[in-house]
Design brief:
Layout lengths: L10 H9 L16 H6 L7 H15 L28 E3 L12 H7 L2 E3 L13 H22 L2 H15 L35 H13 L7 H20 L1 H8 L3 H16 L3 H13 L15 H22 L16 H9 L16 H11 L5 H9 L8 H4 L39 H5 L4 H14 L1
Antiparallel strand pairs: 1-2
């Protein structure tokens, strides 16, 4: 089991991590750009210790699935090359009406014989028989959490693991992915052999990989070698060229819903990775001057409006963070749409909509990281964002995203973090909420101890020392 080396932690950090026995269950956030400078500087503040512990735990959990490779799939794409990424359009279903002897067709015959029709929001489970998309989601989360865990603990194991997964997916001769999405979200049926523009969304979490690489690069990790950096840059240059020139990629850039928003996430992040900050800012400016201007209400028409509002908001916030990182002197948080709305306004409206109203109760938590992100940027002087999070997730300061959604303070009587918050560290983004919780009875540390209380917590310290 991976753990931070004891000597890398201050006694206060070590004891607090041992005492906070509970942590948030692992989730894969829709998307986010984590400022690598904030992670490398390490000035997190004691009020984030619960979130730090969660990240270290999630790093261990996600690592268990690696390494991942695009070649690990049962079927080759039409090119015959398993190095080409492959996925099937998830909302498309076979309609074998009128097809002779349809009941006798094998599953593979159905894929090529029956016409496929779209059922928006209705996921076809056999689309995951080829799971390159699941593998990429897994590697993106594992890279993100392991590199942040490296920033927290300075345990080389986290950095080495992340670097090795990147090398396997993108670089090694036997396992690398070709830098294209020519066969992403293929719509099966007679004569359909190429990918579609919606498939560009499959790699939306490239932003998480970029955050991880920047953390390794900026922290001068020995795991991130010059050869690895050069090889990754070469791959990225080819993929950026594909994103900027391929017809289906351009179609995705023009998509007015979340697909377009996430397209700009990818392209801007990759340009930042290449050191092209002006190019990255040009990408985000293009988004905020075009799609963003009329985009906020669009997802309400979808079959899962609560989910898609939260989903697109996550991409909007990511574009804003990428824009700010590319040019610290010109943030876009107050840019307004043609209706005069900001990202904050979009979030405030989304908070008024019940997930249950559209039968989406299982998606309710998808909005929470967006709430924390908005609070960290715009402030929370009235405590409404903390109250919203507390109502839905009483221990939200234990969530991983709480670490990078700073500054974030909470009022007395609401959920608080594992230790006295004190002063929030600066993350490079401004907020105006400075109220902190002082009531020790509501301190999250007292609520996150396991059922055996302090005795078990103290034993945990000795167990940690002995193992």
């Amino acid at each position: 089991m991976l753990r931070p080396p004891l000597w890398s932690l201050s006694p206060l950090v070590f004891i607090t991590l041992a005492l906070t026995g509970a942590h948030a269950g692992y989730v894969s956030y829709a998307n986010d750009f984590v400022d690598p400078d904030y992670i490398v500087n390490g000035n997190f503040g004691e009020h984030t210790l619960g979130a730090q512990r969660t990240i270290v735990t999630w790093a261990e959990e996600t690592a268990a699935g690696g390494p991942w490779s695009v070649v690990n799939k049962p079927f080759a794409p039409p090119s015959g090359d398993k190095h080409d990424y492959l996925s099937w359009a998830p909302y498309w279903w076979p309609d074998c009406t009128g097809v002779a002897n349809a009941s006798a067709l094998t599953q593979e015959q159905i894929w090529t014989t029956c016409p496929y029709i779209s059922r928006d929001g209705k996921f076809n489970p056999d689309a995951r028989l080829v799971d390159n998309i699941g593998s990429f989601e897994s590697i993106s989360d594992a890279v993100l959490y392991n590199t942040i865990a490296w920033g927290i603990t300075k345990n080389d194991t986290f950095a080495k693991s992340a670097a090795s997964w990147i090398q396997t997916w993108f670089i090694d001769n036997a396992t690398f992915m070709n830098p294209n999405l020519n066969y992403a979200q293929v719509q099966r049926g007679p004569g359909n052999t190429g990918g579609t523009h919606t498939g560009v969304l499959d790699l939306k979490c490239m932003v998480k990989v970029v955050s991880g690489i920047l953390i390794l690069r900026k922290s001068n990790s020995t795991a991130w070698t010059t050869d690895l950096d050069n090889s990754m840059n070469s791959w990225v240059k080819e993929y950026v060229s594909w994103l900027e020139t391929k017809d289906i990629a351009i179609e995705e850039a023009l998509a007015t819903n979340n697909h377009g928003t996430f397209y700009y996430n990818q392209l801007a992040a990759l340009k930042i990775l290449l050191g092209d900050f002006s190019g990255a800012r040009n990408v985000t400016d293009t988004y905020f001057r075009t799609l963003y201007m009329s985009q906020i209400p669009l997802e309400a028409a979808r079959t899962r409006p609560y989910h898609y509002r939260a989903y697109n908001l996550a991409a909007m916030i990511t574009n804003a963070r990428l824009a700010e990182y590319a040019n610290r002197n010109d943030p876009v948080w107050n840019d307004t749409t043609t209706q005069g709305a900001t990202i904050k306004d979009a979030l405030d409206f989304a908070m008024t909509i019940s997930a249950g109203a559209s039968g989406e109760g299982k998606y309710v938590s998808e909005l929470y990281p967006n709430v924390a992100a908005v609070a960290s940027v715009y402030g929370d002087p009235e405590g409404k964002y903390a109250a919203f999070l507390t109502k839905g997730e009483s221990q939200f300061p234990l969530e991983a995203h709480y670490l990078w959604n700073q500054p974030f303070a909470v009022k007395e009587g609401l959920a608080v973090s594992p230790t006295d918050p004190g002063s929030s560290p600066s993350s490079g983004i401004t907020g105006d909420s400075k109220t902190t919780a002082k009531d020790s009875n509501s301190n999250a540390a007292s609520r996150t101890l396991n059922s055996h209380g302090l005795i078990t917590a103290i034993l945990s310290v000795f167990v940690y020392l002995l193992i």
